[in-house]
Specification:
Number of domains: 2
Number of helices: 10
Distance between the termini: 50 Å
Largest sheet: none
CATH architecture of the largest domain: Orthogonal Bundle
Structural class: mainly alpha
Radius of gyration: 26 Å
Number of strands: 0
Strand content: under 5%
């Protein structure tokens, strides 16, 4: 090869590498600007919501709707913050136990039923019928079975998240493409290997969707249990504040619950984006 040809090839290679580098730089810049734009929109939505709240609170009595400043003033009281923290840590016990129990039961059960057409036809009508019943309707039975204290609250958290997780995991188990399973079978994979290497990875997007929905329902069950059974923890703070017509304290607890739900969704989304890099979300 002549010197001129080598120079031409080197120039082409340099140009190609330059295009690749610029493409990567453009892609990185686009991703960064996209994330920044999303965060700015999130902050803007919070600011607009607080402004509307403040505007609306100025036209009604503070007994009906206290202003955001009155609600945030509660968090400047160290004694109230200490009481709130004790109540919140106690609420985490029933939330964690109930949600963990629902995951341990609903995920394997959903996989087993969803992967079996016979079991799906057998149990889907029953699950659909039970899913349509509001979990609060089971409160009288839970009182009879478990009393008014921790066991009953855990049971309500379990019921409020169990069926959502079960239905989503069942849908994911049915959604696994038969062609993928057939490929594993043609390569001599055993049933356990097909389940571990094909079915479960394909289920992961549905599992994280079940986590998002189930965690929100579990938080709902936590505060519902503390209001419907013996008033304790956050429920006790809300009930006492209601008796004193202290709307600001009630809304401050509601704000804490909102932040708790937002943190749970953020952590789950971060785990999903880190563990499911291959999954493209529309």
């Amino acid at each position: 090869m002549s010197t001129s040809e080598q120079s031409i090839n080197a120039g082409r290679s340099g140009a190609a590498l330059g295009h690749v580098g610029s493409a990567r730089g453009t892609g990185w810049t686009s991703a960064t600007s996209f994330l920044l734009r999303n965060r700015l929109l999130s902050v803007l939505s919070v600011v607009v919501g607080l402004a509307l709240w403040q505007l609306l609170a100025g036209h009604v009595s503070h007994f009906i709707l206290p202003a955001p400043t009155a609600v945030f003033d509660r968090f400047s009281d160290p004694a109230w913050l200490a009481r709130l923290w004790r109540a919140l840590t106690s609420s985490f016990v029933q939330l964690g136990l109930g949600f963990a129990l629902s995951l341990v039961v609903a995920v394997p059960l959903g996989v087993i039923i969803g992967r079996s057409p016979t079991l799906t036809r057998m149990f889907e009508p029953l699950i659909t019928a039970l899913y349509a019943i509001p979990p609060v309707a089971f409160v009288p039975f839970l009182i009879i079975w478990f009393g008014l204290f921790l066991e009953a609250r855990i049971a309500l958290v379990f019921l409020m998240s169990f069926f959502d997780i079960l239905v989503i995991v069942m849908a994911g188990a049915r959604d696994v493409r038969k062609s993928l399973v057939d490929v594993g079978r043609s390569f001599g994979a055993s049933h356990r290997q097909r389940l571990r290497l094909i079915v479960l990875p394909a289920l992961l997007p549905f599992f994280f969707a079940a986590l998002r929905v189930g965690s929100a329902r579990a938080i709902n069950g936590m505060i519902t249990a503390e209001l419907f059974f013996a008033a304790v923890n956050l429920g006790a703070i809300m009930k006492r504040a209601t008796q004193n017509f202290d709307s600001a304290t009630v809304l401050s607890v509601v704000l804490v619950i909102c932040v708790l739900g937002l943190l749970a969704q953020t952590v789950i989304n971060m785990l999903e984006s880190r563990l499911l890099r291959w999954h493209v979300r529309a």
